[in-house]
Amino acid sequence: MRNLARIGSLFAALWFAGAAHAATPAEFYRGRNVQLLVGFSPGGGYDLYARVLARHMGKHIAGNPTVVAQNMPGAGSVKAANYLYSVAAKDGSVFGTFDRGLPMERLLGRTEGQSFDATKFTWIGSVTDEPAVCAFSRRSGIRNWQDMKTKPFKVGGAGVTADDEIYPTVLGNMFNLPVRVISGFPGRAETVLSVQRGEIDGLCGWSWSSLMSRDKHMLDRGEIIVALQLGVEKSLDLPGVPLLGDLTSDPKQKAALRLIFSRLTVARPFAAPPGLPPERTKALRDGFDATMKDPAYLAEMRRLMLEVRPQAGAKVEQVVREVYASPADIVKLAADAIRTAR
User: Fold this and answer.
1) For residue range 126-141, what is the model confidence (pLDDT) as tens digits?
2) DSSP of 242-299, one letter per residue?
3) Hey, how many other C-beta atoms are within 10 angstroms of the C-beta on 314?
4) Residues 318 and 276 in one domain
5) More confident position, 266 or 5
6) Which conformational region is residue 64 in: left (phi greater than 0), alpha (psi within -120 to 50 degrees), or beta?
7) 181 backbone dihedrals φ, ψ, rounded to 5°
8) In whole angstroms, how large is the CA radius of gyration of the chain?
9) pLDDT above 80 for 14
10) Last residue of some domain: 234, 263, 292?
11) Domain that residue 178 falls in
12) Burial 241-273 (b: 16+ CB within 10 A, else e)
């Protein structure tokens, strides 16, 4: 009898699991909390983009779940990406955001602590594309590219896979700039505070939208100076600031820089674990796309001075796959440029 009871319990569990999987998206999400993981500490750009999305996205997902943002910082957001890929439920109840550069890291030979395949994430979408910048405190004495080439400087970083460590590493390896990266900051808020205290000279990899939304007062007061922009194309917002790719005439260097900075074309990515049921992938993607057109969401983003130039989940997936199809010689040049001496 005891064995029969165990068998009955097993069949019941399998039935309920099957029923949950077979539920329509509205049935599955109704009354549910959806977890939105943020791979960085509170106070930075990724955190802000995620929290605004969480406030508005639930009403656009079938069943109107409550989307709850939760921070999981660690190793430049590798901790959160690993969790999403290997631990989080693959039923559409969890998605998250992590450093935009992580999807490209395995291609470039940077796999420290990573246990995911970026091509297998379920990509939900990206809120915007954007440039990043190198900006320095006034006390540092660095005003422009020439100063960056001649004056030793220290910048802060959130981990070897984070933009603010990769980009200054590129400057040192490809352009021989006298830069030193101070690693280990849990997020942008802590790095900016270190700039204000004079512990470091600035940041290279400062998202322009984050700077304008959270730290614009530092620009307005002349406390920081933007010396260089980083990206695939020059931003119209920074007409007087040189783009790194324009400072080299070597076509292969230009191609390698485009590969490295391709992450900025999907600057605020959101992804769910691999293997989601197709109907829940569609529900999350449709909810994301609808949120990007929501007047209330757009009004809040304007108030916070955050850019919205969205890309759908299928487009983000395409960008990742195209990056992995890059020519081998360009991949090697890019990989050499981001390699940290150890």
Assistant:
1) 999 989 999 999 999 9
2) -BGGGG---HHHHHHHHHHHGGGGG-SEEEE-TT--HHHHHHHHHHHHHHTT-HHHHH
3) 10
4) yes
5) 266
6) left
7) -100, 125
8) 21
9) no
10) 263
11) 132-263
12) bebbbeeeeeeebbbbbbbbbbbbbbbbbbbbb
In whole angstroms, what is the distance from residue 277 CA to residue 90 CA?
Answer: 8
Per DSSP, the three-state class of 312 is strand
Q: For residue 178, give both structure tokens.
A: 């006298």
Q: Are 240 and 319 found together in one domain? A: no
Q: Could you read off the pLDDT of 120-177 as tens digits, one per residue?
A: 999 999 999 989 999 999 999 999 999 999 999 999 998 887 889 999 999 999 999 9
Residues 172 and 96 in one domain: no
The most distant pair of C-alpha atoms in the chain lies apart, rounded to whole Å, by 83
Do residues 80 and 162 make contact, with C-beta atoms less than 8 angstroms apart?
no
- Comparing 342 with 217, the larger pLDDT belongs to 217
Going by the DSSP 8-state scheme, the letter that residue 60 receives in this structure is: G
The answer to whether 97 and 50 have CB atoms below 8 angstroms apart is yes
Q: Identify the band that residue 209 occupies on the pLDDT scale cut at 50, 70 and 90.
A: confident
Range with the poorest average pLDDT among 17-21, 51-55, 88-92, 225-229: 17-21
Q: Which of 9-18, 56-65, 259-268 has the lowest mean pLDDT?
A: 9-18
Burial pattern 285-311, b for ≥16 Cβ within 10 A else e, equals bbbbbebbeeeebeeebeeeebbbebb
Instruction: Classify 34 as helix, strand or coil.
Output: strand
